[in-house]
Every structure is written in structure tokens, then in C-alpha cells.
């Protein structure tokens, strides 16, 4: 069958499972846009900025675990995609990015909007090709889809506008289903290490999403407490007595205590990026589907190439039940940490206490909700003070930690599920992509936006203080965001006092449609790291803490 290259792209993406494609029309990409209009096999979501489209595609892939797509026109439209695509790269999300290019006859002539996009996209992509003519297009399209899926990253195709219009015969290279690889790990070494361990712990990440029952059963069978990387929040209920909390600068003291006392760490579906929190003298088993990941960040005793489901099912059958008492040993550390959180949440602050705001949000949110969190102090408040229920899903810009991801990420989440979707955003990040409120209203996307407004880049303010610098350059001149939401005809309200928090959060969550709730929070509430001693940290973390203590020895969180 003869098709244009643009039609072939859309048909191949649809066959691969892509349901939505994000972008802004432009001259060199218009043949692709028209194919979307005519084929109707993929839903087009018109964003107001290509960065928002790339973020949405990245969060689409994170939420679904499958492939997603976005596009941009030649020159500036394609350039705008990069930040969102770096989010996909660093969180290993499978995204196909299609960029337009000037006509082949104009290449190399410094034409209007001609940019060397293959060179520009080289670092962000696992697969990156220029499509010179229609004959090679079927192969490169199929290859891009395959590489995005298997490489867990961005596959980029840059295509001149005339090539998009050219016709081509479909061939055997067009998309066919990628076979699922079944891993059968050898478990003898694992079972030996588990049998010898008296203090095992599970460190879980995004690779355990959807595996809650298996993680819980395995933890109970070997008597292991559970700690989590940021992307593993919500896999197990935060109120489960085995859960010690998150690990890292956003994490808990009880998780650090668990790491310190453990004799075996089983890392499931995570390449936790902060090596300083993983003691180098521990026995570590790391389970991942990608052979490049085990040992990439921290030393690993035994790498296991397997998906977490296969590994957990096999281990549950293979290991005998044991009660080490390790969970009970850590109960006082966990209870002490939780008490300190409650104490912080009950503090009187100038303006709304953001920690109390996050905690009450967790009380009122539906138990299967999806929470998309922007980068900044808001990340800390949600990571620590939102008590996750098992089955809730938490999405962040994890490894890149880019501001501005919260609103476009929540747009995709609300389009991709019928569950309640909440965007927890700070004023700094929200202002970067708030033009996407237009997208929210255009498609009547029922996302609930809780805006922590402290009129500062407050995490940077804190970092300046820790390093001994005066606060400077971090104050923000903000609009009244609730009025701005009304300008888009989106319902909104404001929280200005402690007494209003619960009732207005309920109002937001009960509303049938999109809602912006702006809370005026205290910018001087510090996002303190867990209280740790120098001896509890290793590597660069210890060096950083020593440096910080030298600048400001009175910061209590930096010392025991």
C-alpha cells in the first residue's frame, strides 16, 4: 500500500500503542499534523509551548510504562522540545520525537529556520537519525519505535518537509510488535545471601510500580523493612509499619537508620542516583531489566538481569520464611521520625504551613489518585508529608529535576487515566509553564492544581543560606494566580490561613472539572534534610555536609 511518509509515521505510532501526540503546528511539520487530522488513529493534543508537549509525552511514558510521542517544527519549535525530552532521557521514559526540517533542496544554504537538529539532539537520544528520502523512511520509523521501547529513552527523527509529503510503499520494516523478553535469573546466589542475612532491606523504585502485592509478600517473608527512591513512593502504603520512608535528601531519618544497620540491600527496579546514601561496605543485590544499570551508581555485589515481577515471584517461592526482628528493631526510629513530621506540620508559621498543606492533601485525596509534583520545595513537602496510600501513583521530574514539569505532566496524567489527578506545584515552576492552563481549559481536563505560592525560589534561597550566601535574586513578582485561572475560565480559590486548608482542599477535589487552589505559604519554612551524622553519609554527600557545616554550623539538620 502506498502512503505518504507522514501517514506512515502516524499509522506506525498508532500500531505501537501511542494514543496521544503532543505538539504545536508549524510549516515544516504541517504534513504530519494533517495526517493526524485525517487518520484519527492518534489523539492530537495542542499544547501552547513545545516544552509542555515534551513534558507531557515524558509523563505519558512514565505513567503508562509504554511509548509516547511529540513533535516540533524546524528551528525553534524543535529546540523547545529539549527540556522535556531530557526529562524523558534521565527518567528512562520511551518517547518518539518527530521534528520537521526545511526542504531538502534548501539544506546547507542557511535557510530560514534551518538548524542542525540531528547534532542538537545527539545527547538526548538513544536513537537519532535524519531521514534523507522516503525510501529509507519505513525502516527508520520502525527502528525509532523499537529503540525508544528497548532503550527506554528518546528516539528522534528529523525529516524534511518534502520527505514527509513523499509517498512510499509499506514494507516489512514497518512496525511489528516487539517480542517480550522473559528473564529467568539464577536464584541460587540470591537465596544464599538472603538466607545468611539477619538485617535485609528492600530499596524499591519505579520498576516496582504495579507490583505492590509481590513487594509486600517478599518483604514479609524475609522480614525486611522497605525504603524507597522517590519514584517508588506509593508502591507500599506509607503507614505500613515496614515502610521506613524515602531515601535521600528528601527522605527520612528512619530510612538512613535502616541503611546503616542493614547487612543486605536488595534494590528493586531502581538505580538510586545518590551514591552518598548507599554505604560502600554493604552487600547489595540490584535487579534491573537493563544490564547497563546495576553498578552504574553504587557498587553492587550481585547484579540480576530480570524484571521485578519475575524476580519477586521466583524469590517468594524459593526462600523460606524468616523473622529477623529487624522491622521491630527499627520501630522506634520510624516512630520518632513520624512524630517529628507531625510536630513540623503543627507549627505556627507566617502564612500557610506548606507541610500541613501537603499532609491534609494526603488525607483528602482519593486512595488511587495520581499526584504529579513539580520541582522545588514542593517536592520535599509531598515526598515527606503526603502519606501515600498503596495504589496511589506519584510522578516527578526525577533525575533531571526540572522546574515547570508539574502542569504539563498532570495534563497527560489526566488524559491517560480516569483516576483523580492532582498537580502539586510551586509558584516558580508553575509560572514557567502556566500557559498550559489554556490546554487544560480547551480540552476540559479535570486536573486539580494545588499551588504552593511563597513568592520565592525558596529551595534556592535555602541553598544560598546553607552555603553562607545572602538571599539574593530569588524573590518573585507573581500575579494573583487564582485570578489568572479565572481569566482562562477555570474555577479557583485561595487559602490564606490555617483554618481554611481542609475545607478548600475538599472544595477543589469535589469540583467537577479543572480547579486551581492557590495557597499563600511561608517562604521561611526550610526544607531540611533528614538529621544525619557525618558517619552516616559517604562519598560526595559527606563532603557536602562538611562544607555546609563549615559555613553554617548552627543548622541543626546537618548534625545529630
Relative helix content: 25-40%
What is the average per-residue confidence, as pLDDT, rounded to a whole number?
Answer: 91
Strand order, main sheet: write it out: 3-2-4-5-7-6
The span between the termini is: 71 Å
| CATH domain class name of the largest domain | Alpha Beta
Unreliable spans are 531-560
Radius of gyration: 24 Å
Put simply, the count of helices is 23
Say how many strands there are.
20
How many domain regions?
3
Q: Approximately how much beta-strand content do the residues carry?
A: 15-25%
What fold name goes in the CATH topology slot of the largest domain?
A: Rossmann fold
Note the main sheet: 6 strands, parallel
Which CATH architecture of the largest domain would you pick?
3-Layer(aba) Sandwich
CATH superfamily of the largest domain: Thiamin diphosphate (ThDP)-binding fold, Pyr/PP domains
Briefly note the structural class of the backbone.
Answer: alpha/beta
Shape descriptor reads: globular
Keywords:
560 residues; alpha/beta; Rossmann fold; six-stranded parallel sheet; 23 helices; globular
Summarize the topology.
Layout: E1 2-4, H1 5-16, E2 20-23, H2 30-39, E3 43-46, H3 50-64, E4 68-72, H4 76-79, H5 82-90, E5 95-101, H6 117-120, E6 125-130, H7 137-151, E7 154-160, H8 161-165, E8 167-169, H9 188-196, E9 200-204, H10 212-222, E10 226-228, E11 243-246, H11 253-261, E12 264-268, E13 283-288, E14 302-305, H12 308-318, H13 326-329, H14 331-345, H15 354-364, E15 370-373, H16 377-385, E16 393-396, H17 406-416, E17 421-426, H18 427-433, H19 437-442, E18 448-453, H20 458-466, H21 481-487, E19 491-495, H22 501-510, E20 515-520, H23 539-551
Parallel strand pairs: 2-3, 2-4, 4-5, 5-7, 6-7, 9-10, 9-12, 10-11, 12-13, 13-14, 15-16, 15-17, 17-18, 18-20, 19-20
Antiparallel strand pairs: 1-8
